[in-house]
Amino acid sequence: MKKIFSLSVITLLFLTSCLFFSRKAESTPEPIPPTSTTAPDINFESGLMPEYQGIVQKLKDASLYTIEFVIADDLYHITGSEEVRYTNNEDVNLDEIQLRLFPNILGGNMTVKNVKVNGDDVTPTYKLNNSLLIVPLKDPLQPKKSLTLSMDFSVTVPQTVDMNYGVQAFYDNVLALAHAYPMIAVYDDEGWNSEIPPQSGDVTYADMSFFVVNVDAPKDVTVVISGREVNRQDNGVRQQITVEAGPVRDFYLAASPDYEVFTKEVDGITLRFYTHSDLQQGAKYALDVAARSLEVFGKRYAPYPYTELDFVSTPTYALGIEYPGMIAITEWIVDPDNSYLEATVAHEVGHQWFYNLVGNDQLDEPWLDESLTQFITLQYFTDEYGQAGNEGFRADLEGRWAYLDNSPIPVGMPVRDYSDAEYSGIVYGRGGLFFEVLRDEMGVEVFDNFIKEYTTDNAWGIATAEILRTEAEAHCKCDLSALFEAWIYP
Ligand SMILES: [Zn+2]
Predict the structure, then answer these.
(1) Disulfide check for 107: which of 62, 82, 113, 158 has CB 3.0–4.6 Å away?
(2) What span, in angstroms and rounded, lies between the C-alpha atoms of 3 and 380?
């Protein structure tokens, strides 16, 4: 998910991140507003490009979250409520539903109360350091049947960026609110798939869902939210913003009193960059790179699905972090002369295809999003700048792997099986180079068709290494087992 710093920069940032920023709470959280029931006139199609609007009906059994977030004046206390319509899309009965409470392992705190199933009180249990909420079902939920879960929650956001790159933090006057709602876990061939994510790599693994979210926040703060804004009002002190998002794999929000917005339109897509006004040049340059990346990836893989793509600068110590239709860029690289900016923007835009549109288990098979996204970033540089661009970015991949003396550590391992240095060198370095080797083996034309079809075949779903290999072999009509043994399989 994230494009991470090179090792020397990680070390540097660990040191500088010891400079804590703290801000005294200015008020207690607002009372929780009543849970909205059915939002009127929900129209997820309006947030999708025309060629994708049919997916809303096809995914009608995806989870539908209705969430209220109330952000206190101090910007790091959040209260809220959530209602989820959940459908059992598996072929077995479910006797429990598992939800992730990520703030409890991201340096903050989340509590949940008033948990109900179809309006009836239930007593949940907790596991994984309180990051897993298990909701028992009195009657097993049969395949294709639905239920409604509801609960109230409160979150205290950490005021440091020490955990997991600071994905969830209030720091430097910016609230970065990732994964801050009770989030349904994925049920797959392993059953409910939940674990505590390592410090390297991405935190979530999620199915496509729909969100109707109301955010209540201080009026003087610019709030940037996943999805498409459908309503906004304020009473002079507080503002209420309602958004609809979906299908998306996650919901993200960033807020700061310091944000200014810079905008660019490209082929019916509105691009916005929210950052400090003195970073205007960097923001405009990033939007230009984003527009060109959208064009390259849209042509090569599949059209970009949404009508909007938002960027926010945050104090994260990853270079960038991708969310569906949103991207966080670390503030210090928002500068047209910063050599990290173009590659970071192209890489994070690339994740809109590989992570969001085509999902994967980001903890067990991180190469499916990270290594492939490194490769398509290389493709961006090649398409934009020819041989020189290719050589320039390939040197980055090669440098990462060379840091490990080109050790043949497999690309296809879970995040937890790599050291930090290996995760960077293998998943971000060797893994990107693997796709060049695969292309050489398959032939350029066959390979390009394969990646395109892999994208459309797996759009909105979850791919696996076996799916990728099977589709590749079907295209080249060849046996790739030796190549996968040499590069991918542990
Ligand atoms: Zn990434």
Answers:
(1) 158
(2) 15
